Structures are given as C-alpha cells and as structure tokens.
Amino acid sequence: MATITTNKLFNNYRNKLGGNGxxxxxxxxxxxxxxxxxxxxxxxxxxxxxxxxxxxSGIIASLAVGTITVGTVGAGVVDAINSTFSSVSGVNxxxxxxxxxxxxxxxxxxxxFAILVATGLPVTPTGADITIVHDGSGIIRF
Length: 142
Fold this sequence. Notes:
There is one protein chain. The protein has 142 residues and is mostly beta strands. It has one domain. It contains 1 helix and 11 strands; from the N terminus they run ββαβββββββββ. The strands form 3 sheets. A 5-stranded antiparallel beta sheet has the order 2-9-8-3-4. A 3-stranded mixed beta sheet has the order 1-10-7, with no helix packed on it. Strand 5 and strand 6 form a beta hairpin. The chain is globular, with a radius of gyration of 14 Å.
C-alpha cells in the first residue's frame, strides 16, 4: 500500500479534542492502538459512530492488540512505523479505521479517525499480507 495520512475524524473524537465527547482521549505514545481494514460496502462510515461496537459488520481484518507502534508524537504530529496485516482474505476494503483499543472491548474502544482516500485503496485481500505504509510526515496532524 502507498503512503497515506488521515482524512476523516469521527465527531466523538473531534468533540473529545475540544473537551467534550464520550470515552477517553487517546495517549498516542502509551495507549494501545487498533487499526481495522474496513468494508464500506457492508457498512457506510458515519461521522456519528463513537466506538468499535458501531463497526462490527464492516470489519474485514484487525491488527492484534499492541501491533501498532507509535514512532513520533510531538508538535501536533502523530506518526507510527508501518503496520502489516497477515494473511488477509475477504472482500474489498475501502477504508482503514483507527481506534483506541481498550482491551478488545468494542463498546469502550473509541474510534479516532479513518483513511478513505489513499493510493492502494480499495485493496482486495488475496490471502497475502497487507502492509500499511504510514505517511512519513505523520498519520495525523493537528
């Protein structure tokens, strides 16, 4: 997959950044980060979605807890090392959805942002690994 950067923030995350919203605000360099390959054909991403419980019908593959490693947090930029989904099969994935993973409990794992437009999206799983190459200047910039 090609270089990508955030292009959709969920309303709850936006509100949390402003001091409101449900769930906890993510500490990018210490909290566990989840990333999901997502099929928007099965479920359209809605700005009002709050947590992973809202995504259940569209998730094709998820990285295991702790496999997202943050590389840099500072000056309004969050970056991470590249991420690899192993042996992915299923239908086309049109989005990458990022969330704070609270121990695999979907109802308490808030959605952060999604990547909907990037070279390499949509991706068709073939049973091979899918590597996500995060943008060198940050996945999310404030």
